[in-house]
Amino acid sequence: MTQDDLEQIKAAIREMMTEFECPPCEEEWLTTQQFCERFQISEPTLRAMRRRGDVEFKCFGRSYRYRG
Q1: Which one of 25, 49, 54, 66 has the fewest CB atoms closer than 10 angstroms to its CB?
Q2: How many folded domains does the chain comprise?
Q3: Can you name the residues that pair with 58 across neighbouring β-strands?
Q4: How does DSSP assign 6-67, residue by residue?
């Protein structure tokens, strides 16, 4: 494999990656601690709100993020 081959592969990869780029998120996602501090609630209250569907959240493994 030559240096030219590698450059062609890199160029092809860059071109493919542009198809998947998206604009930066305008949304703010907060950690549990940040959400509780901002809205002055306890973690148990936030968990209850999450179970009832009162707050929008995303789960990443065992970590939650809440829309700010």
Answers
A1: 25
A2: 1
A3: 65
A4: HHHHHHHHHHHHHTT--PPP---EE-HHHHHHHHT--HHHHHHHHHHT-S-EEEETTEEEEE
CATH code of the domain in which 18 resides: 1.10.10
**Cβ-proximal residues to 45 (8 Å cutoff; 6+ apart), any chain:** 36
pLDDT in tens, 19-60: 665 556 677 899 999 999 999 999 999 999 999 999 999 998
Residues ≥6 apart with Cβ < 8 Å to 58: 29, 64, 65
The interaxial angle of helices 32-39 and 43-52, nearest 10 deg, is 100
Residue with tokens 């009162």: 54
Q: What is the separation, in whole angstroms, between the first and last Cα of the chain?
A: 50
Q: Domain span at residue 49?
A: 3-67
